[in-house]
Design a protein that fits this description.
Layout: H1 2-17, H2 30-37, H3 41-53, E1 57-60, E2 64-67, E3 82-87, H4 95-107, E4 112-117, H5 122-134, E5 139-142, H6 154-162, E6 167-170, E7 181-184, H7 186-199, E8 205-210, H8 214-228, E9 238-242, H9 248-259, E10 267-270, H10 273-285, E11 295-297, E12 314-315, H11 319-334, E13 342-344, E14 348-349
Parallel strand pairs: 3-4, 3-5, 5-6, 6-7, 7-13, 8-9, 8-10, 10-11
Antiparallel strand pairs: 1-2, 12-14
Helix pairs in contact: 1-3, 2-3, 4-11, 7-8
């Protein structure tokens, strides 16, 4: 019985926190909840009673149950020397270096880290934000989730603003918020990378970009701008776009179709090094020689990219420095100092996965 009432309680609570039921929305009746969850009246009443005690629900005599304004005073607790970090993927090859850089800086001032990840999913981002706010963290460092898409969690970000919680963004920003940010000039960097391939004689290049994150949009725009500056070959450009939830097999299948064309691409520019390494493995399994048959380039300068065979031509991402600068920036905000956003200029890292087009 206890397990059933907890299940009902948590599902209702998740629906409230996610915004499925908004503040002051009327909830289903007891009878409707009994039918929905296939439980007894006692189970529903116990679940609803606890939510009422926790100030998620209120009742109107004869009118039913409604969602209470569950937002709290999330002003940072002065005694809590904890800084929250919300990333899209903790295990991603970029973030361990960024987190290490942050920790080196803030630990010297007696702060520790509370880390959460969203798996690039807005629902998980919402839960991460609420968990951080409930913990009364002193400040937040956030990598926006699916930053190229409309974000359903703006109400929480406005709560962060209203509670004056020092907050910075890394890698991307939400355009309607004024928090300082530390980013890379992805568009210019990608344009330089494609121009480098032009210099090697590549005219037909396949770009593969993730477009639910703003970094991917900027990198794709750099790809397009490079071709716009070479109108005589712009018709030879090729693009595959995908979102973070799309299976890798689908992306590789689309790539294979391009490589079967008579005028197939002679180079492939990938959204990041992680994708580039997957692409290279796939090409090797098809007996496609890199860079003899096709050149491959990435983005981010992942540590392993220099050790694979052939080593990967890519663009630098200042991971450790981003972490250190994020730590310094958030400490400055905590000290009530004025800060400015930072945008890094990325540099080209030339290795062995790209070479000049063979002359026919």
């Amino acid at each position: 019985m206890e397990k059933k009432y907890l299940t009902v309680k948590e599902k209702l609570k998740d629906s409230i926190l996610s915004g499925t039921y908004k503040i002051h929305d009327k909830l289903p009746t007891e009878t409707e909840l009994i039918e929905k969850f296939n439980v007894s009246r006692y189970t529903v009443r116990r679940a609803v009673g606890e939510l009422e005690d926790e100030h998620f629900i209120y009742r109107i005599q004869g009118g039913g149950m409604f969602v209470q304004d569950w937002h709290k005073n999330w002003t940072p607790a002065k005694e809590r020397k904890i800084i929250g970090i919300i990333t899209t993927h903790i295990a991603d090859y970029i973030f361990p270096n960024i987190i290490s850089g942050i920790d080196r800086v803030i630990s010297e001032k007696g702060y520790s880290l509370l880390i959460s990840n969203t798996h690039n999913n807005h629902d998980k981002e919402r839960k991460s934000l609420i968990s951080m706010l409930d913990s009364r963290v002193a400040a937040l460092i956030i990598e926006p989730t699916q930053s190229a898409l409309e974000n359903p969690n703006m109400d929480l970000y406005h709560e962060i603003e209203a509670n004056e919680i020092p907050t910075i963004f890394i890698n991307a920003v939400y355009p309607n918020l004024k928090f300082p940010a530390i980013t890379t000039d992805d568009k210019v960097a990608e344009k330089k990378l494609i121009e480098f391939l032009f210099g090697l004689g590549h005219e037909s290049i396949l770009g593969i970009f993730q477009v639910d994150d703003i970094q991917g949009i900027h990198r794709m725009n750099g790809f397009v701008e490079a071709y716009q500056s070479r109108p005589e070959i712009s018709f030879k450009s090729n693009l595959i776009i995908y979102q973070s939830g799309e299976p890798l097999a689908n992306i590789l299948a689309k790539m294979d179709l391009y490589l079967k064309l008579a005028d197939r691409p002679t180079a492939i520019a990938c959204y990041n090094d992680q994708l580039a390494i997957e692409v290279m493995d796939h090409l090797k399994s098809k007996q496609v020689h890199i860079p003899g048959d096709v050149s491959v380039v990435g983005f981010d300068d992942y540590q392993m990219s220099r050790f694979i065979n052939p080593s990967l031509t890519t663009v630098s991402h200042q991971k450790e420095k981003m972490g250190e600068d994020a730590g310094k920036m958030v400490l400055a905000l905590l000290a009530k100092e004025k800060v400015s956003s930072i945008e890094y200029e990325a540099s080209l890292v030339k290795r062995h996965s790209a070479k000049p087009v063979a002359k026919s």
